[in-house]
Amino acid sequence: MKKNKVKTTTSQLTHLFVSLFVAILILVNIAFLLISSAYIYNHAKDQSEEVIDTVKDNLDPKYDWSAMLDAYLAKQDDDAITLTTPQGVTYYSEDAHETFKKIDHQKHYKNMIFSKKHIYFLNQETHHGFTIRVALNIDELFELITWLWIIILGLNLIAIFISIPLIRRLSHKWSQPIQTMDTEIQDIQKAQQKESYITVPNQPLEIKNLAISFNNLLAFQNKALKREQQFVSDASHELKTPIAAIRGHVNLIKRRGKSNPEVIEPSLKYIDSESKRMETLINELLTLGRIDRNNEAISSTDLVKTIAEVVTEIQTVYPQEIYTSLPNKLEYPIQATDFRNIVHNLIENAAKYSPADSDIHIDLTKNNNQIIFKVADNGIGISRENHDKVFERFYREDNSHSSKIAGSGLGLAIVKAEITKYNGKISISNNKPQGTIFTVSLPLEK
């Protein structure tokens, strides 16, 4: 069983355009034949009608028609004319008797008669009892059209042979951007270089857009790879610290637990604390991993109820006063757990980085196009240059105090991912006189 040979873009374009060119030539030739045939027919018809009209204008029973009929025909043509009087007498031009005898036994195609040697146009008309028949020889017209058609056919063949290399050259030029893209993509795959992009051609527009889209995909992939590599590195570092501490205290208990039982209780407390920290970290990592892959059906959620529940929970753990400005009810198409993650992480983040005697203000409003959720604190604030960095995984604004504040550094990364999932936006602004305001915008029409 033969396999279909894979064709290149150049060969496909060449085949397509050559086929199109040949098809156009065939249509032109057919049109030429139809037009020339119509011309021959109409021209012969006009000539025959002119001869008949001339004979009609001079009808007279006294004339000797056998001598006069030749005067109505061109001497150099093999034409023939007959005139039948009302009395039934038929007069023939020179050689007309033989001509009509031959053509009367031939097949007629409308007024056209094709004999073995000649082609005639036959026309007949009756006027005042006289019957006039005219047979015009149109061999010369057919020969002229035939020669013209042969010449055109030859020119068509020459045009086809000349056009093939030209079309192939143009096809190669048009397909060159695709071939360049293919070569560069293969080079990227072989070299496995980072930050590699393909050349964007100026034209055609479709290939240009394709190259831009592919480069955007490469940029997204490179960014994702960097983010995942950084994530693995940071996660390993964050997990390494508590694991090392746990193992250290386990070894301490093994070495000195029997002889010094007083070290067991603080070591167990430390192991418990670090294991809880690891549990929190792993749960947040799983939350981040599930955000993009969560395809559950989205139902309407009462945002006010969710905020009230989270505020009640946090208020029992942190000393700050939390003030809310909420409508009676506000529903939005979002998974309840997703919005709960946003609210909980933002409010808890505000509580962690704010003085114990400070206030936290929460606002929820709705305008024509979006839902606005704000969390404002009076804490240590965030430098303007770090407004985007705080949403990165494991990033903390103040590393020197990060060990004193509980958390994994994933809370705001989860918030950012959840908001992006619903095509929303989050921004940071400075509170006055101090502190930070997080503003979440969720579009009403997604």
TrEMBL record:
Cellular location(s):
Membrane
Q: Primary place of residence?
A: membrane
| GO CC aspect terms | plasma membrane
Tell me where in this chain the Histidine kinase domain is found: 234-446
Q: How does it sit in the membrane?
A: Multi-pass membrane protein
CDD domains the record matches: HATPase, HisKA
> Which SUPFAM superfamilies does the record cross-reference, listed alphabetically?
ATPase domain of HSP90 chaperone/DNA topoisomerase II/histidine kinase, Homodimeric domain of signal transducing histidine kinase
Q: Name one GO molecular function term.
A: phosphorelay sensor kinase activity
**One family name in Pfam for this protein:** HisKA
Q: What class of enzyme is it?
A: transferase
- Enumerate the InterPro entries for this protein: HATPase_C_sf, HATPase_dom, His_kinase_dom, HisK_dim/P_dom, HisK_dim/P_sf, Sig_transdc_His_kin-like_C, TCS_sensor_his_kinase
| TM region(s), chain numbering | 12-41, 144-167
Which UniProt key words apply to this protein?
Kinase, Membrane, Phosphoprotein, Transferase, Transmembrane, Transmembrane helix, Two-component regulatory system
Enzyme Commission number(s) from the entry: 2.7.13.3
> What is catalysed by this protein?
ATP + protein L-histidine = ADP + protein N-phospho-L-histidine
Residues of the signal sequence? none
Protein name per UniProt: histidine kinase
Native source organism of the sequence: Lactobacillus hamsteri DSM 5661 = JCM 6256
